[in-house]
Amino acid sequence: SDGAPEFISPDGERSFKIGGRLQFDASTTHGSRFDDTGADRNVSGTEARRLRLDASGQLARWLGYKLEYDLANNGASVRDAFLKTGFGLGSNDVALYLGNKYDDRTLDGATSSNKTWFMERSLVNEAIAPDRGSYGLGIKGKIYDGGRNWHGSFAITSGEVGRDNDTSDNVTYMSRVHWNPWRSGENMVHLGTWGFYEDFDQTDSTVFKNTRIADHFNENATIRSRGISDPDNSTAYGFELATSLGSFAAAAEYGERAVDQREESGDETMRYDAYSVQAGYFLTGEHHGYSHKSGVWKFPEVKHPLSAGGIGAFEIAARYQGLDYFDAPDYPGGNGRSRTFGLNWYPNDWSRLMVNYILWDTNNRSGDFQGADDGNTLSARVQVVF
Amino acid sequence: SDGAPEFISPDGERSFKIGGRLQFDASTTHGSRFDDTGADRNVSGTEARRLRLDASGQLARWLGYKLEYDLANNGASVRDAFLKTGFGLGSNDVALYLGNKYDDRTLDGATSSNKTWFMERSLVNEAIAPDRGSYGLGIKGKIYDGGRNWHGSFAITSGEVGRDNDTSDNVTYMSRVHWNPWRSGENMVHLGTWGFYEDFDQTDSTVFKNTRIADHFNENATIRSRGISDPDNSTAYGFELATSLGSFAAAAEYGERAVDQREESGDETMRYDAYSVQAGYFLTGEHHGYSHKSGVWKFPEVKHPLSAGGIGAFEIAARYQGLDYFDAPDYPGGNGRSRTFGLNWYPNDWSRLMVNYILWDTNNRSGDFQGADDGNTLSARVQVVF
Amino acid sequence: SDGAPEFISPDGERSFKIGGRLQFDASTTHGSRFDDTGADRNVSGTEARRLRLDASGQLARWLGYKLEYDLANNGASVRDAFLKTGFGLGSNDVALYLGNKYDDRTLDGATSSNKTWFMERSLVNEAIAPDRGSYGLGIKGKIYDGGRNWHGSFAITSGEVGRDNDTSDNVTYMSRVHWNPWRSGENMVHLGTWGFYEDFDQTDSTVFKNTRIADHFNENATIRSRGISDPDNSTAYGFELATSLGSFAAAAEYGERAVDQREESGDETMRYDAYSVQAGYFLTGEHHGYSHKSGVWKFPEVKHPLSAGGIGAFEIAARYQGLDYFDAPDYPGGNGRSRTFGLNWYPNDWSRLMVNYILWDTNNRSGDFQGADDGNTLSARVQVVF
Q1: Domain map (residue ranges) of chain A
Q2: Could you say which DSSP state residue B190 is in?
Q3: What is the pLDDT of residues B66-125, one digit of tens each?
């Protein structure tokens, strides 16, 4: 965003900028049958979802950097922290990153949290993820089609910022490709696919991944994973399908992950998959912002911003999604689904108000919230980018 | 402060600024009868009291933001992190804040830590406080009298930055009003009152609040609270009286808090109160800085700053204060008092040196330091704001 | 560095600047006989070695400040956080610091981590250190010879940023002096000596200090200390000898530390010492950057930077070093040595690539890795300063 000034050297080679994003959420959940002091899913409150600051710049025409951290957990957690270079390759463009960089994985996941249609990303992105999460230390490369109809990315990461180094890092390989088979003005069809492979260190003991089903605030409304001990490797892949037609847009995603146990420990496999289908419509005539270059959603161009006496942009959106830990050693894991109805207001190009209403159900086989349960969650967010 | 530059867009609508404050303390305590390796109140040393950085700015004429954190605990703790807007209401001005903002509670407490007369705020502010401390996530509003003779504030907060969200937030309602019944030039009389009500979540287990009596460095010289289990709600209120007459100023404050237990747990109440009386005098002719708009103390305007070949401003100050956990279920809590003598040197409008000498006594009924005890603490601070 | 802009007030009295450094490492170790899931020294991976940000400036001609923190541990750890003033003293210059400042101790240690010849500092610096590490809260002074042939420093520190203050701080006194008995252009001979004395608080229970022998990544390849309980004080000293002759430079350092137990606890002493010898040579004709003022290594002036179509500067370097916990109560501690071979590439004056190959051996008498062991570690670093 251009909320903070950018400083550029007289020769245009060097630059420096500070930026940030503030996201404040409120949330209330009702209807769960777990409603007492020991195990309460009907929780309410507020949180600072993201309090980010970053410094970025160019040290030369060919070398940029970024150092970003999030203060929302009342500490400083590193996000992007990388060096960047780029060059042409035939008619295409290549960007290379060294350091800690956010993953290119799923359409919803590769989209900035400032620009997703719903307050939280889809279950496909949240659940079908490597153990290290969405950031990893390593090398990432992206190639962009000269005609901006496709891009591909590849990443090799080893470990995380701040990890204890008394064991070897897990190594993760990840790739994503998108292609626009049809484009006409702002209308388009998007196809995408991605996958990753993780090689677990011999000392890694268990893979276990609960996933929140309501919103981020509610830590108790989760789909509970089954754990698998002594993991050897994990393989995951997914597909993306999306379209934007005038003020309407829709997207569908699917992903699956398999975690293989080490042979000497039993050679079992834990499998789970997730899907999401979502649609959005701008009541005020905007089209959905989309990057043909990177295959991700962008902020809409607000037709009637407040600063020009307008009312901003209004968008309605709906999503249906599910996650199922359908195969695990010994016994099945949990599953769950959610229906989300969203209303977004974009007063201008640097702020957004979001309201999400989520109907969710879970069926967990372990933990504090076993058995079938359902509830509804009302959430709101105020977001500003500077 | 204007130690760091502010960047303003050509149309004057947007701005950006970085700021900070550095406070370094030294402290030594003597005279306590607890003086061995197991329980030592006669401790000495130094600490970085505050190492703050903040980014703030305006994104439009009607919307500002601030993101501030403190590095003094060798981590990054969030302080102010909010969005701000404002508008006129008749002849009055209204400011609204969304996010994490420092409370408007007690005269000494509402005053910036750069501007309080003593190194630490009064016991009224430190002890008669909500469980969440002096910051809370929520909405705060302030209304300022057009004639700048009074202001009122109201806040509803729910939870804190970085709190685990496995239970509902406590909700806190808070208000403060000040009025200047008399003003003549820089002379004035200040009246104020404030209060808050906390609604504890059903899962909250205990309210317990020790309060430091010497200075911030000494973690062992505290007045020990009695705990109350299963709190239902808490109510607190306080009064402020102050005057500034030429180079002399004085202030008196009182506050009381009651914490009610849940009915099914015994329906008991814990009560305690605190008071403080303080006076200050500028040897170099300045008057005490005071904001008629907000009802808080400000930095003095230094008559003879070092940069103009002067000696800066010198202030002497004294404070008497006490805190008493006089009523609690089962058995009484601790109590204590302190007399503080202070000398402040203001070389210019962005720095200050402080020396505090504190005579304190405590009478605790539990913990490592039971029974009557007293001691003296000598503290000093160097403070710079940029 | 000048990667980020500096803002200077029109009168030149005030300034403000943001800076930072990014260091990303990769490391792989082989050859250790400890190679299983319980105790594995043959670990591999990557880490963000340093992710630093700092704000610094001048508030007046006579007063500067700096506030720096490191995000590499996925939190914010305070580094330099001080106020600074200076004045002339006869023909000499004096600088005074108040707050948290990096120590002036050993030639390799006093050199910035951006400018040391090897990825990690020598064992002399890493092991012959006070318990509080390389930063301490207090007052530091430096005096610089008007002819820039020597400097001296003295520091008194008490405690650390973020320490719990339930006991008194340890007080540490430290001094370092360097002298250039011969200088001719860029050629020089450097002599130096330093020492420190720590006064442990009566509540301090044990001194224990493991030291990494391979690189920073490998937390398991350490020389294990023997602990001494109830320490009373510690004394340490060291010597520096260095020379720079054309493109060649060499340095030798030695240091020893003794930790005395309190008399009533046994009055024992733990002793250990360390040495290092290193040499470097620029294949591209540069000389080793060196500050006659402060007696530390600096960045080389790259003769053929990339931006001018050159190949940058190439340096080869080798180091031999050892550490021995030769005397301790009851039983001996560990010892170890390493040989490091390094290749450094300086594309320009703000970036560096380093490769280090380390042959190490240890002989520990306690812990998970007892008995004689050896291995080899290959490490690489990418470093950018802005």
Answers
A1: 6-385
A2: E
A3: 999 999 999 999 999 999 999 999 999 999 999 999 999 999 999 999 999 999 999 999
A contacts of C18 (beta carbons < 8 Å): 16, 18, 55
Picking from C271, C287, C264, the residue whose alpha carbon sits closest to that of residue C184 is C287
pLDDT tens column, C254-268: 999 999 999 999 899
* Residues on chain B touching A3 (C-beta within 8 angstroms): 14, 16, 57, 59
The closest alpha carbon to A266, from A243, A232, A239, belongs to A232
Q: What is the DSSP letter of A41?
A: -
pLDDT band at B164 (very low <50, low <70, confident <90, very high): confident
Beta-bridge partners for B335: B324, B363
Pick the closest to residue C249 from C314, C318, C195, C202 (CA basis).
C318
| Rg of chain C, C-alpha, whole Å | 21
**Cα–Cα distance, A188 to A205 (Å, whole number):** 45
What is B6-385's CATH number? 2.40.160.10
- Check residue B7 and give its pLDDT: 87
Tokens of A124: 């496909």
DSSP conformational letter for C265: G
H/E stretch holding B339 reads: strand B335-348
Return the residue matching tokens 């005890």: B373
For residue B63, the number of C-alpha atoms closer than 13 Å in the C-beta half-sphere is 18
Low-confidence ranges of chain C (pLDDT < 50): none
Residues 6+ apart with CB under 8 A from A212: A120, A126, A218, A219, A221, A222
Q: Are C20 and C54 in contact (CB under 8 A)?
A: yes
Residues β-bridged to residue A348:
A351
Beta-carbon separation of B57 and A4 below 8 A: yes
Question: For residue C262, what is the DSSP state?
Answer: P
Tell me how far apart the alpha carbons of residues A214 and B327 are, in angstroms, rounded to a whole number.
Answer: 43
At residue B36, the pLDDT reads: 85
Tell how far CA C104 is from the center of its chain.
9
The C-alpha atoms of residue C223 and residue C213 are separated, in whole angstroms, by 6
Contacts of B20 (CB under 8 A, 6+ apart): B3, B4, B51, B52, B53, B54, B385, B386, C55, C67
Q: Which of B65, B161, B165 sits opposite A218 (nearest CB)?
A: B165
Tally C-beta pairs within 8 A across A and B.
113
Question: Across the strands, what pairs with C323?
Answer: C274, C336
pLDDT tens, residue by residue, B113-162? 999 999 999 999 999 999 999 999 999 999 999 999 999 999 999 989 99
**Closest Cα of chain A to C49: distance in Å?**
9
Share in percent of chain C as helix, strand, coil (round to 5): 5, 60, 35
- Write out the H or E segment, with its range, that includes residue B296: strand B296-298
- The number of beta carbons lying within 10 Å of the beta carbon of residue C182 is 11
Q: Do B168 and A18 touch (CB under 8 A)?
A: no
Question: What tokens appear for B90 in the block?
Answer: 């008749």
Distance from CA of B210 to the nearest CA of C (A): 14
- Quote the ipTM score: 0.96
Confidence of residue B9 (pLDDT cuts 50, 70, 90): confident
Contact of B75 with chain C, judged by CB distance below 8 Å, is answered with: yes
Name the percent of chain A lying above pLDDT 90.
86
Burial label for A67, CB within 10 Å (0-12, 13-18, 19+), is: buried
Amino acid at C308: A
Cβ atoms of C238 and C256 within 8 Å: the answer is: yes
CA distance B155 to B137: 10
Of A47, A75, A386, the CB nearest to B76: A75
Q: For residue A13, which of C306, C76, B94 has the smallest C-alpha distance?
A: C306
All residues at 6 or more sequence positions from C156 whose CB lies less than 8 Å from its CB, including other chains: C138, C139, C171, C172, C173
Is the CB of C161 inside 8 Å of chain B's CB atoms?
A: yes
